[in-house]
Amino acid sequence: MTESRTESSEWLIYRGAGEPHDGMDRLPPPPPWRDFASRETAGPGADGSQNRRLGAHRHLAELHRPGAEELEMINAALYLRRPLLVTGSPGAGKSTLAHSVAYELGLGNVLKWSVVSRSTLQDGLYHYDAIARLQDVQIAAQGGFGSAPGSPGAVEGIGSYIRLGPLGTALLPSDAPRVLLIDELDKSDIDLPNDLLNVLEEGEFAIPELERVADRLPDGEAEVLTADGAKVRVRDGRVRCRAFPFVVLTSNGERDFPAPLMRRCIHLELGRPDHKRLATFVRAHLGDEAARRGDDLITHFLERSRSELLATDQLLNAIYLTDAAAPTSRDRLADLLIQRLDRPR
């Protein structure tokens, strides 16, 4: 507990008084999941957001013990090399599952594809920047370098304008599978679930821009960028996996998926977490003391979640802020942060 509990206004950094002050000096460290300073320590090709998430979920992987059904479905997907479709309410731990598996099995950073209504299959596979290449060709031609090997105008330079997406990167040939999180698939356009079928079934895809010029490339190979910033060589314009990736597709249940997709997936439905699981979730992110002090908020959160749509992210926010800022208006602030997601507008 901090001394700021004595005055409800003492925890406020911004006071709305219209006068400059040194309040920023009192701002405590950010929550672990919002610590962007981790970008500075990210390794080659790593993503700072991945480091933050992995750091948070490393503790969760150590503390969390999934139920028997959850374990069986995860292992079924691993054994059968099938995608795992995980459904459940917001904050039930759907995306955490992918990070926990990656951490425990030593499969590296999770590749994440956050799906939106405009997402297409190509977004997940690769992007070819034809406009940038055309501009570079024109600039190079003006300087007389358009035909130099490896220049933008040369066939050898085409790979510089291709970057694999998360799905495309996950399908690169490797001895161990990558972990791919396709997050919130239910937010996609109606065609995307069907468009995924062939790629997820065959474990390969073509890059037509490379296929057309493969016979003019050295050994038929072009060097391209991956979603996590590495450079790899693609042969004959095709990407073929050797180890099928561990693919986790998540859905908040906002829509039904076509039968062909359901047939190709292992389906896991995550129920509403109980008190023990929520307490473990809080301990993993904020520590034992914060979980102990926030036990009443966990209980209140569970009571409300029986009739309201809530997300565990809201619970984390409430426990962190009421613990770090320690305002006297603790319950009122917690209620402001934990607002039902399904309330009428």
Number of beta-strand segments: 11
Structural class: alpha/beta
**C-alpha end-to-end distance:** 37 Å
> What's the overall geometry?
globular
Keywords:
345 residues; alpha/beta; two-stranded antiparallel ribbon; 11 strands; 39% helix; globular
Condensed summary:
The protein has 345 residues and is an alpha/beta fold. Helices cover 39% and strands 13% of the residues. The strands form four sheets. It has a five-stranded parallel beta sheet with strand order 2-5-10-1-11. Strands 3-4 form a two-stranded antiparallel sheet. Strands 6-9 form a two-stranded antiparallel ribbon.
Question: What this model shows, in words?
Answer:
The chain has 345 residues and is an alpha/beta fold. The protein is 39% helix and 13% strand. It has helices at residues 48-63, 68-80, 94-105, 121-125, 130-142, 166-170, 192-202, 208-211, 259-264, 275-286, 288-293, 295-305, 312-324, 330-337; strands at residues 84-87, 111-114, 126-128, 162-164, 179-183, 204-206, 221-225, 231-235, 238-240, 246-251, 266-269. The strands form 4 sheets. A 5-stranded parallel sheet has the order 2-5-10-1-11. A hairpin with a 5-residue loop joins strand 7 (221-225) and strand 8. Helix 1 packs across helix 3. The longest helix is centred in the first third of the chain and has 16 residues, at 48-63. It is globular. It starts with 47 loop residues before the first helix and ends in an 8-residue tail after the last helix.
